[in-house]
Amino acid sequence: MEKTRLPLHHCHNRHSFSISSKPGFSLVPHLLVFISELLFTFLWVLHQAYRWRPITRTVYPDRLPGDVKFPPIDVFICTADPSKEPPLGVMNTVISAMALDYPPDKLAVYLSDDGGSYVTLHAVREAWKFSKWWLPFCRKYELKTRCPGAYFSAEESRDDRFISCSEFLAEEKEIEKKYNEFKESLEKNSVNASSSVSRDHAPIIESTQAKEMSILVYVAREKRPSRPHYFKAGALNALIRVSAVISNAPYILVLDCDHYCNDPTSVRQAMCYYLDPEISPKLAFVQFHQKFHNISRHDLYDSRLNYYWRRWLGFDGLGGPSVSGCNLYLKREALYGTKNIKNDIDLNHLKKSFGSSNELIRSISKNYKPHLSKDRKLTDAQAKEVERLASCDYDGRSEWGKEASTMKVQSRKKMRQGENYALLLGRWALGLMQISLSKYCALLYGRGRMSTLHSMCYAALSFDPIYVVPFYVLAIVPQICLVSGIPLYPKVSDPFFIVFAFVFLASQLKHVQEVMSYGDSLMSSLYELRMWMMKSASSYLYASLGAVLDKIGLHTAHFTLTNKAGDDEQATLYQEGIYDFQASPVLIAPICSLYILNVVSFVVGMARIVQTTSGSEMLVQAFIPLFGVIVNYQVFEGMGLRKDRGRISASVSFLSAVIAIFILYFGSLVFIY
User: Fold this and answer.
1) Which pLDDT tens digit goes with each residue over 190-209?
2) 84 is in an annotated binding site
3) Which of 198, 344, 494, 513 is the most exposed place for a label (fewest CB within 10 A)?
């Protein structure tokens, strides 16, 4: 059942087009600004597709059939390095998945350890021991927060019904004691975690099961230095094959290792779509939002990602959103692309697609059920077959993963992520740009496969990093012209000034209206604008350069594992609403350089305006750097006012000043001569 909402218009139209034929006219800056306006217009048009048919959805889990009729669910979680992805956080994700509100005999949790680390394997064993205490406690008291780390770190996790219950409090105290012992065991075994990571090892599979417990399977696929492993994609492929002969659930929940299931009923909500005979045949996956844990009231870094989730409302109304990488319940059949496979199909054809494993090919059938014993333990033959499916060369002998359905549906936000949100999302932006420059560009590849509006939604998402071009032009060109005395915009007394003022104010107010109509505060619109500017200045810059160089063969893009390890001082700064500038100077210097350039151009420009009688024609250009300086006041604080460890270092400030002066000097020479 769906409800139609009024469109939420997020306007990125920051126009400033002008043509001048006055004395002092310079072609280069006018041409650059004109090109920037064309790019802004192009991106603005693409974003209108999101506003065509935004919808929200409501589910009714209480109307589902009994647990007996529920289909099995497999949960996939991937980790790679315990020194960057602390085992405690990963195990909290595993335990929260095991604690989902679902029949335990129909739930299997798989952890892929791409580092083959004994630290992670030990943590899995300890998590299994603790879960024997934790899961019965969750079910007995119907806990809503079933991630133990989140539960014991927040008082509001408790249910008001049991606050005064002595039995509950006694059990909770005992469970907390067990959890602390669990933490200590993991911390003690995590010393020198980085040295435990292996890139050259045979497959390791360990399956654990017990009555009233879901299956927990540890998978370390084979890794050899001479064989490509395709990072997380390869890990997920291995999990799909391994799970096919152990549990073969028709639906798969994919989680990142630093996520936890915020709502244990999310699986039942997903089943509201999959058990609906009208909508289920059209679905490939049900996508849940990801949200960040411990978001401060300031949300400096736009960690709730509402900028993207507002888009998803329109995405959903046009055929479904894109895969967000995790937090989705995926239909195995859709991933295999086997919906229309005939019973008499040639076995060799299937082996070409799925590899040489007869057991894997048999699992494609809807009627296939793994032949596990009553205690759900693997036989020696099954264990050998599973290891074969986790070998490093299995992918290379098949056409695995080339066919997949593209029909989707979106659901409500039910997943949360750790609060250590990266300031600049370079890896995401690089991936988006690589898609835009490939044959899978939505505007080209989407033709004939989806509606025009739907392909525009995909294109708007993948083309986001292109904002770097108009952003840099409007952050540099009008400022250089202001210092050089070259007018780009109408005088305040000119009737066309009203057009410029209206477009600017309308776009900003529309953004504010959109943010607030989504339920966020006025300050959230400022934080979103800041993040857009910071991403455009740094992550979009390097992502666009990296993607272009990769496309022409001058540079190879590399996957970098995100460090999920926490930092107490960073957390304190974040909760106090203070920006942390401890990132690499390569990322911070562009932001600071543009800020210094805008400060200098504003000061020099205002001095020029005050000293000349015709200064009114430069007022609009003086407002542009002033706007950037005010919006990004946090950069000024970081460079000049703060003394804490999260400030911008003096060396970075000096380097940025040199870069800003260089741009102003040589830019003035180019524009004048």
Assistant:
1) 988 888 999 899 999 999 98
2) yes
3) 344
